[in-house]
Design a protein that fits this description.
429 residues, mainly alpha, 3-stranded antiparallel β-sheet, 17 helices, 6% strand, binds carboxymethyl coenzyme *A
Length: 429
């Protein structure tokens, strides 16, 4: 909706009038689409002040520490909902009623297996490959297996692809883990819940099927909910950008996985544990805090800070509670790494450097500790983030394709050479 206008005064040129758009909540947005006619572009590397799209899926108020999916606070979803219900909400806009939920769960379960031939794809990878490297490959490879749902202009195809991705990600994630361990891959079990089935495929073997702890399954489900979506972050924007060219959904999600891998984004959960290992002991914390503050040192305190949250990350609050539940279920007390993490948190929350910059622990700070306690190896942490975020990515992809959109094509401020002529090779210095 545009009722207000902004006026841009450009020296030596006529003023440009720009509409101001108003969302449901959140800051107004200056619509600069008409600016190109004046011969100017905006310059905003890192999207510090640019909305890349319109969306109805997720709202974040970073100053107040609020995260809403389709209007529902993340705390309520974590407490009163489950992951598949949250998936339905993100994909369809409303929470399901009992019948819709049963139907959705059953549809997802119908798609949990992957094509048998996909197994041989794994054999091309080294066993010690990073699981995220394998995930980028195998998820992209799904487009070679499901030709029947690749027409992005067909809403039914988009629907089937969305369900397939949500259903198959746990299977693929567990297959990646089993491959790295040299253990047989486990088929999904549709009598289990989404989280139970994932833990079953991760930790059970054909020769020993152990029951899944309900507390751990609940914790896993919560981790999935807390990572399900986070509006236009780097990986979601990557999925939208890839999708805007008309690429198929499996290729787009593979692009999202690649973007998520970086330590400034989803790779942070793995980086937190690596950092705790590196710090090693409480007595070394001061040294690492000093490194984090030193502008000449690239080291950053992993699991702290966020582009949007300048207050507590609401996901981190729920994650901390879950962390306490899991540690108590597993009887983990006096864990040195956990003590180290808690001490680090305490220092960072009181140190003026972190306080002035509003650098709070983010979702990745606690999720790593929980995942480690559940027995998931560090290298699988970001895979789990990818598994859970797939529904967010695919919801944004679907949203974009459901209304008129343009290929994403940013402009640039060119600072390279002006036109020049090639010097013959023999005359070059
Ligand atoms: N340790 C030390 N200093 C930090 C940290 C940190 N973790 N994060 C930000 N700063 C400083 C930064 O140096 C800058 O200082 P100054 O103003 O003096 O130059 C100031 O705080 C503002 O930071 P920024 O780098 O401009 O903020 P950004 O919005 O560009 O980056 C971030 C956000 C998440 C990439 C960054 O905080 C970071 O690298 N954190 C560590 C990695 C991490 O935990 N990432 C997970 C994010 S949550 C999950 C997800 O979204 O994937």
């Amino acid at each position: 909706m545009a009722d207000k206008k902004a006026q841009l005064i450009i020296e030596g040129a006529a003023p440009v009038e720009l509409p101001i758009l108003t969302g449901t909540v959140g800051p107004d947005v200056i619509d600069v689409r008409g600016l190109g006619a004046s011969g100017h572009f905006t310059f905003d590397p890192g999207f510090m002040a640019t909305a890349s799209c319109e969306s109805k899926i997720t709202y974040i108020d970073g100053d107040k520490g609020i995260l809403l999916h389709r209007g529902y606070p993340i705390e309520q979803l974590a407490e009163q909902s489950d992951y598949l219900e949250t998936c339905y909400l993100l994909l369809n806009g409303e929470l399901p009623n009992a019948e819709q939920k049963a139907q959705f769960v059953s549809t997802v379960k119908n798609h949990t297996m992957v094509h048998e031939q996909l197994k041989s794809f794994f054999n091309g990878f080294r066993r010690d490959a990073h699981p995220m490297a394998v995930m980028c490959g195998v998820v992209g490879a799904l487009s070679a297996f499901y030709h029947d749902s690749l027409d992005i202009n067909n809403p039914q195809h988009r629907e089937i692809s969305a369900v397939r991705l949500v259903a198959k990600m746990p299977t693929l994630a567990a297959m990646v883990y089993k491959y790295s361990m040299g253990q047989p891959m486990m088929y999904p079990r549709n009598d289990l819940s989404y989280a139970e089935n994932f833990l079953h495929m991760m930790f059970n073997t054909p020769c020993e099927i152990k029951p899944i702890s309900p507390v751990l399954a609940k914790a896993m489900d919560r981790i999935f909910i807390l990572h399900a979506d986070h509006e236009q972050n780097a990986s979601t924007s990557t999925v939208r950008l890839a999708g805007s060219s008309g690429a198929n959904p499996f290729a787009c999600i593979a692009a999202g996985i690649a973007a998520l891998w970086g330590p400034a984004h989803g790779g942070a959960n793995e980086a937190v544990l690596t950092m705790l290992d590196e710090i090693g002991d409480v007595s070394n914390i001061d040294k690492f805090i000093a490194k984090a503050k030193d502008k000449n040192d690239p080291f950053k305190l992993m699991g702290f800070g966020h582009r949007v949250y300048k207050n507590r990350d609401p996901r981190a609050t729920v994650m901390k509670q879950t962390c306490d539940e899991v540690l108590s279920e597993l009887g983990i007390k006096n864990d040195p790494q956990l003590e180290l993490a808690m001490r680090l948190e305490e220092i960072a929350l009181t140190d003026p450097y972190f306080v002035e910059r509003s650098l709070y622990p983010n979702v990745d700070f606690y999720s790593g500790i929980i995942l480690k306690a559940i027995g998931i190896p560090t290298s699988m942490f970001t895979v789990i983030f990818a598994l859970a975020r797939t529904v967010g990515w695919i919801s944004h992809w679907k949203e974009m394709l459901s209304s008129p959109y343009k290929i994403g094509r940013p402009r640039q401020l060119y600072t390279g050479y002006e036109q020049r002529d090639i010097v013959d090779l023999k005359d070059r210095k």
